Amino acid sequence: QTIGDLGDLRGRRVLVRSDLNVPLDGTSITDDGRVRASVPTISRLRDAGARVIVTAHLGRPKGAPDPAYSLAPVARRLGELLGGDVALATDTVGDSARHTVNRLEDGQVCVLENVRFNPGETSKDDAERAAFAGELASLADAFVSDGFGVVHRKQASVYDVAKLLPHAAGGLVEQETEVLERLTESPARPYAVVLGGSKVSDKLGVIDSLLEKADTLLIGGGMVFTFLAASGNEVGTSLLESDQIDAVKGYLATAKERGVDIVLPTDVVVAPAFAADSPATTVAADAMPADQMGLDIGPESAAAFAEAIRGARTVFWNGPMGVFEMDAFAEGTRVVAQALTEVSGLSVVGGGDSAAAVRKLGFSDGQFGHISTGGGASLEFLEGKTLPGLDVLEK
Ligand code: 3PG
Description:
Bound molecules: 3-phosphoglyceric acid
CATH superfamily of the largest domain: Phosphoglycerate kinase, N-terminal domain
Helix content: 25-40%
Strand content: 15-25%
Radius of gyration: 22 Å
Number of domains: 2
CATH class of the largest domain: Alpha Beta
Structural class: alpha/beta
Distance between the termini: 10 Å
Order of helices and strands: EEEHEHEHEHEEHEHEHHEEEEHEHEHEHH
Strand order of the largest sheet: 5-6-4-1-7-8
CATH architecture of the largest domain: 3-Layer(aba) Sandwich
């Protein structure tokens, strides 16, 4: 069901689950992409005369109020983007939430405080989650699921509440699933996937399924050192998941059997320490000094990755190629991002970190085919897993 199926929304209280989990520096938002992505659905509901109640999480508080994780900066930013005040309830389902919702007029928007301040949100106990979902549902007449970045979580405001109210997918969830389905169903070939980020253990499932679908896997980021080690290289003091070396050897063998090209860097930018001012040098990937760590792919590798990306007709990218937050180790990520903007087919940037990286490096959203708001969610979608937050909408 989509929003249109909910009928006339004038005067109805609509609970919207958005993903407003943005990176913060103190109380300033360093990348507001997820807030901006949530605006079209909220605006649409507001224009339809609904009383809009936004529920969302920020970070991983421990099931109790914690000012460090308050949604206050996010509610302020949402108000700026919507061009009007957005009230913030100081709790999730308590007195403040009820009063704030009762005061809403048609076409007005409020935000409930961080939904993870309530232990019921993330509880593994079905009854506890359902009880909290019941309290959330009692605030509203309908539910719109628009937080694509959290649909892989079986949590009260994502999953259980949809069972209690007339519900629909919001525009963002609709749009994200349509684009990602193009990657899983019939990607135009060649289909290249660029994977980076720190941990290979977060990507095992998706690598497994990509070995059946992609033509080329380009590997960078911290996880590449486990690949390099599995291929017989010394990796100095780089990040290494020794317990994954056997799994990675298995992937390299499977890729060979299936004709999938796994491309590893041939050169690496290394430094003695994980620090912005640590002296950086470029070395061959098979000659990394024992006392240095790899912090970016080197220029030769970045150029080779860029060529493979530009030659593909479908590209999905998740995870930075290096420590892009530090200028000396940002070049690999910049070159890969630039190549994605030059793809003649579909280019998709998946994940909060990669999306934040491309914006920090000065690219704009419009230069890419699609920037997904989902990190874990987009990977699990590609993996073909059942995502509880989508599954519940279909039932
Ligand atoms: C994300 O940042 O990927 C989503 O907001 C989900 O957050 P979580 O990993 O803390 O559930």
